[in-house]
Each structure stands twice: as structure tokens, then as C-alpha cells.
Specification:
The chain is built from eleven helices and 18 strands. By secondary structure, the protein is α/β, with parallel strands linked by helices. It has two domains: 134 residues, translation initiation factor eif-2b, domain 1 (Four Helix Bundle (Hemerythrin (Met), subunit A)); 222 residues, Rossmann fold (3-Layer(aba) Sandwich), CATH 3.40.50.10470. The protein has a seven-stranded mixed beta sheet with strand order 8-7-6-9-12-17-18, with helices on both faces. It has a four-stranded mixed beta sheet with strand order 13-10-11-16, with helices on one face. Strands 3-4-5 form a three-stranded antiparallel beta sheet, covered by helices on one side. Strand 17 and strand 18 form a beta hairpin. Helix 1 packs antiparallel against helix 2 and helix 4 runs antiparallel to helix 5. It is globular and about 65 Å long. The two termini are 39 Å apart. Bound molecules: 5-S-methyl-1-O-phosphono-5-thio-D-ribulose (MRU).
Amino acid sequence: MRVEGVHRRTITLSDDGWAVDIIDQTQLPWQLRVRRVDSLAAAAHAIRDMQVRGAPLIGALAAYGVCLALRVDASSAALERACAELAATRPTAINLGWALARMRAAVQAVGEVGGGGDGPARVAAAYACAAAICEDDVATCQAIGQHGAAIFEATWRAVGRNRPLRVLTHCNAGWLATVDHGTALAPVYLAHDRGLPLHVWVDETRPRNQGMLTAWELGQHGVPHTVVADNAGGHLLQRGQVDLVIVGTDRTCANGDVCNKIGTYLKALAARDAGVPFYVALPHSTIDWTMASGAEVPIEERSGRELREVVGRGDGGVMTHVTVVPEASAVANPAFDVTPARLITGLITERGVCEATESGLAGLYPERART
Ligand code: MRU
């Protein structure tokens, strides 16, 4: 991803080679602030407070959180404590559990401290695994971009090629949500770079306004876009101003149901009513093969403060919190919802595109299909 013309990733090792540098997303789109994460506690805090967010990136930082914990104590007991602390930060994105399981296996393969393995070897194995998780994410997102861009090109041909392709997206499933490229936005960037004219409708995505992250990213890459209120999507779809919808997912169930940022389901319903294709882009790491359907997905309930207050840049460029909900009113803040597979036109993965069904997923991932 380009930022001010320079290519960078969302998570990198610091100059010292052991801490990690992240982009503090709570400061975007107002300022690009890089933060150093140098302990397990700092990694858990960055995920919980959403300095780092987006399913794949949460998994990547959690992996480095394990590395940082093992630098202090490389025993299996410490490994389990670190995994438990990181797993408790955010419940919905399955990549977190996926990354922690991979880390646990890589470290345990070295052997217990004093029992065949040694501390430095376990720490080295952890760093190698965290780096591999990041590289896997980059390659996966690039492949999703290829498959998704082919759909964009086909849709553009189908609508007559005489105007830009009009895409609608919800939340941020872009570069900032992954290590690089994004999932839902990877096809946008690739199609744009190949010269396909397109325009993106960006849902603001209340209450945390992740749409502003999407708008910032698209702006950095030079992709034409327009931010709309969440409630505008149905109208745009109904009036024929959207050619396709594409979103990411935090957990994809074995039957093809997807759990994504709150409000995704309403977009899928409106897209179905308007006859507009609704695609979900996902890496293998968001598939939860153990979960039969979306009804079982744990939905994160976040602080009511996110709803009561709007955060923005006030006079003098200072970040300001403004209260918008009457103090006496109760608030509820479910952060995700489930879009049933029947509303999804196709799942775009790194291995290709499939139907949002158990057999569709099994066709792409025969080695993981449920028995
Ligand atoms: O609460 P967030 O901002 O972490 O939610 C992120 C999303 O819902 C994304 O769409 C999802 O993680 C897919 S990102 C590739």
C-alpha cells in the first residue's frame, strides 16, 4: 500500500528487530502515527482499543504479542497465559484464534524449556512463525485481488464499459485491516492499477466510522470514492447507482454464512432486493470450519461510549469527543452481524471464487471440508 507515495505495511519489526511498529488507527484519518509495541500487554491493549483492527491484522499482531511474551518467559505455562490474554481481547474475528493456534504449535514443536528445547530456540521459532503469518496474509490478499479484479472486469463489461464501475463497500476491509493490500479492497486497487475506471461508495460505518479509514486508504491510492451515511446504501442500490457490493468478513462459517461489521446484513438485504451482486472477500484464515452456521458466532458487544460520542477533529486540529445521545437513554452496541449465505453471490478467496455453501467451500478447500 502506498502512503504519501511510499510503500509500507501495517505491521513491521522495529529497527531493534524484536519490537513491532504498528499504525495507530485510532488517529486516522487525521494523522499517521506509528506506535512501537514492545510487550504482551501493549499488544493486547492495541487490539482491545482498536489501534489495530481488522480480522487478519488482529491475528498478525497477536502472533507478535506471543513473541514478546516469550522473550520474558519462554515456558509453556507463559505461552498458554499469553495466548489466553490475547484471545480474550476481541471475540469475533476467528483469525485471532487461528494465529494463536499456529503460534502455539510452532513453539511447542521446539520442546519445553529444560526438556529438550531451550528459551532462545522457542523465541526464534515464535518470530519465524509470526513472520510467516504476515507473509501468508500478504500473498493471500494479493491472490484475492486477482480473483476479485476478474469479477470487477467482467461486471464492467456487462454494464457496457461506458462509465466507471460503481462499487459499494462497508467498514474497512482494506490495507489497514490486513498486513497489506486488504481483502475486499485488494480487487479495487488491482483493477484501478490495471486502468479499469471505478468509483467506490464508502459507508461511514457508525459507530466507529471505519469508512473513514477506507476513504483515507482509497485517497492515498488515488481511487475515486464518495463517503455516504450508512443509511444511504439502500437508496443507492434501489436507484441503480451500484454495480456490485464487496465486503470483508471476520468469521466465515462452514455453511457460507459470514459475520462482518454491524450493518453488513442490511446492505446484503438491500442488494438482493435491488438485484445487485453481493460478494464477500476472505482469506482462508477467516473460515471457521467448526462453526456450522452464523447463529453460533459470538458477537462482540462494545462499549456504549462508542455510540454516545462522535470523535472527530475539532478547532485547531485537536481530536474531540462530542456527546450525541441523551444521557438518560440506554444504548446497545453490537459490533458485528451475520449475513446469511443465501444473500451472498460469491465468496472470493485466495484459491478462487465459490458459492457461499458448504460444498462451495469444500470444493476450494477439500483438505478442510467437514466430515
Ligand atoms: O471492528 P473492526 O474494525 O475490527 O471490524 C473489521 C471488519 O468488520 C472487517 O470488515 C473485517 O475484519 C474484514 S477485514 C479484512
